[in-house]
Structures are given as structure tokens and as C-alpha cells.
Design a protein that fits this description.
Elements (H helix, E strand, L loop, with lengths): L2 H9 L3 E6 L8 E8 L20 H13 L1 E8 L1 H7 L1 H13 L9 E4 L10 E4 L7 H24 L5 H4 L5 H10 L7 H4 L6
């Protein structure tokens, strides 16, 4: 990531927001709202913050711990019931609004990953593929991803047959076959599974 982008977001104290889990068959959609502290620039590890999808598990965990130590952040979720009731887009927006609640009333600029579908303040900017263009959004994506992955791994201990410790609730071949064999659980998104032909 370019040094200028690092300096811009951090020096200007931009709040970054990103979500994970939008396309999963089960579990919540999880968003993170984050404000990186300026002192993070004193550590070379900052240059490794990138889109969470491009990082391996070990690197994400290391960076997640590092980011948490050098930021103020908040997690917001919308569970599978809310997703079924209001659709995934509105539930994703709700999770982001909940994540931002900690910073409500601040005057910071905000960068949100994705297309504009709602607004938080007059300084809200939506950026397509923002986790590749903003270090604040990238940091939010890392925190949200590690948080949700940990949650799905815990769920996998209750429902080990679905392989959630490996697929994190996404519609892999393993997960689809498990649904065929064992049915659905209380954390599955019914609205995502209504078209049985996809299995």
C-alpha cells in the first residue's frame, strides 16, 4: 500500500468501516469501525496492513493483535434472523451503523467499503474495493474477519458436521453436503437456502 495512503488516513484520523460474512450461508454479518492511532506509524508492521482476503490466517492474526493495540475500534453485527427479516443489504448496513455507534458524535471523516447505500455523517465516503485503497478500511476488514472467523470456529464445536472451522459458514461443497445430510441449524440464513436447487 502506498505510503501516501498510510499517511492520509492516519494523520487525518479517518474512521474506516468494513464488513465480512455477507455471502455466508450462516452466522452473522460482522462489521468493524476503527480509528487508527497516529503512533502506529512508528512501527514498520503498519506497512503490511492490507485487504484481509489477501492475507493468510497467521498474518491476519498477527496484524489483528497489532492493530488492536494501536487503535480504537468497535464491532457491530446483524445476526441470521435479522438478515432473514430485512435482507442482507439492510442487515449489512445495520451492522455498520452498530459498529459506528462508539464514534457517533465525532467529527471525523469516514471511509466505508462498498457502494453508497446509507450515510453516517456529512463526511462519509463510500469506496468500491476500499480495503485495497484505504488503510483504515483494510484495518477494519482484518479486525472484522478475525472476529467472525473466531466466532464461526466456536460455533463449529457445537455443530462439527458442517466444517465451519474450515469454511466459516460459506457455501463450500462440504457445507452444502452437510446441509443435505443433517438439515439446517438455528444460525443458518433461511433466506439464503430457500432455493434448494442450488444444492
Amino acid at each position: 500500500m502506498l505510503v501516501k495512503l498510510l499517511l492520509d488516513d492516519i494523520k487525518n484520523q479517518v474512521i474506516g468501516i468494513d464488513e465480512v460474512g455477507r455471502g455466508a450461508f450462516c452466522g452473522p454479518v460482522v462489521s468493524c469501525s476503527i480509528l487508527l492511532k497516529k503512533k502506529i506509524l512508528n512501527n514498520n508492521l503498519v506497512s503490511q496492513i492490507s485487504d484481509s482476503k489477501k492475507l493468510n490466517i497467521k498474518k491476519r492474526i498477527v496484524l489483528s493483535k497489532f492493530i488492536k493495540e494501536h487503535s480504537s475500534y468497535s464491532i457491530g453485527i446483524a445476526n441470521n434472523i435479522e438478515i432473514d427479516q430485512m435482507n442482507i443489504l439492510r442487515a449489512t448496513n445495520l451492522s455498520m451503523i452498530r459498529a459506528y455507534e462508539k464514534f457517533k458524535g465525532t467529527d471525523n471523516s469516514i471511509k466505508v467499503d462498498g457502494l453508497k447505500t446509507f450515510s453516517l455523517n456529512e463526511k462519509t465516503t463510500f469506496i468500491k474495493n476500499g480495503d485495497q485503497k484505504s488503510i483504515s478500511i483494510a484495518a477494519a476488514s482484518i479486525i472484522a474477519k478475525t472476529w467472525r472467523d473466531r466466532l464461526m470456529t466456536l460455533y463449529s464445536k457445537v455443530y462439527p458436521m458442517y466444517g465451519w472451522d474450515r469454511n466459516k459458514g460459506y457455501g463450500t461443497h462440504e457445507h452444502r453436503n452437510a446441509i443435505k445430510k443433517f438439515g439446517i441449524t438455528k444460525i443458518h440464513r433461511i433466506s439464503f437456502l430457500s432455493n434448494l436447487r442450488r444444492f
